[in-house]
Structure formats: structure tokens, C-alpha cells
Design brief:
- The structure is a single chain.
- The chain contains two helices and nine strands, in the order ααβββββββββ.
- With about 150 residues, the chain is of the alpha+beta class.
- The protein folds into two domains: about 5-45, no CATH class; about 50-154, Immunoglobulin-like (Sandwich), CATH 2.60.40.
- The strands form two sheets. A five-stranded antiparallel beta sheet has the order 1-2-3-7-6, with no helix packed on it.
Amino acid sequence: MSKKNTILLIVLIAIVLVFFIQRSGNEKSAVTDLKTDSTVSAQTDDILASQENEGGNVTVTAQPEVLKIGQKPTFKLEFNTHSVDLSFDIAKQSFLTDDKGNKLEESTWSGSPPGGHHREGTLTFNTPLTETKYIDLVITNVAEIPERKFEWNL
């Protein structure tokens, strides 16, 4: 093995070790220090974690902002592509379902207008959330993908 390859291998191993050490340190601090703000947001992030769906050359990212019983469900959404025109009505193409078969369809979009290759904003459903175990956010017909589904347990 050449000296150059040996150095490259050592650097790669060091990067991998740093990644695993940092990751295990973050998990340990979340378990041992339950009173810090970072732990609260880490626990919140686990429940309301951002999710991504890729297909048809479009990446859709959904991040719940409000998912509490008795409140209107709200999501931060991002649509990113380099080759598809994002001309569609997000509110009309989105709905929520839950474990009881309820379906919330009426929503409002506050964000980027139709068109372009990058859109982001907030989707708010007009009906408060009722008692449920989970919800599915479904966005239909984006870049010829019939359904993009995002699920969060409550």
C-alpha cells in the first residue's frame, strides 16, 4: 500500500471514529441530563421528527409544527427539485388521516406560490386534532407520484 493510500485510510478511520464518538456522546447526554433545553427539543424532535419523501425528481420534507389534541395541525413543508415545475395547489392536494379513519381535508397554505423549483411554507388544517394514536399527512400527485405519506405517532 502506498504512503498516500495509508494516509487516506487513517484519515477516513479518524472521521468515522469522531462520528461514532460524537453520536454516542449526544445520546448519553440526552439520557443523563433531562432538564436541559437541548434534551427537551431532542425528545420533541423524536416525536415530531422531520421526514423526507423523494420521487419523481422532487424531494418533499415535512416537519410538524403543531400536533396537539384540540389544536389545528400545522406542518412546515419544503418541495425541492431541479427539473420539475412545482405548479400545484398544496392545500387542495393534502389531507390528514388518523387511526380512527377520520380525514381532515380543509387546509390553508401560507408560503411560496405555485411554480418554480423550490417551495416552502406552512400548511395548517382548519379542524383541530381529536384524540388519536397517529396521524398520516398525505400529499397527492406531486411529480406524478400518486401519494406521498408521512406518519407521526402521538
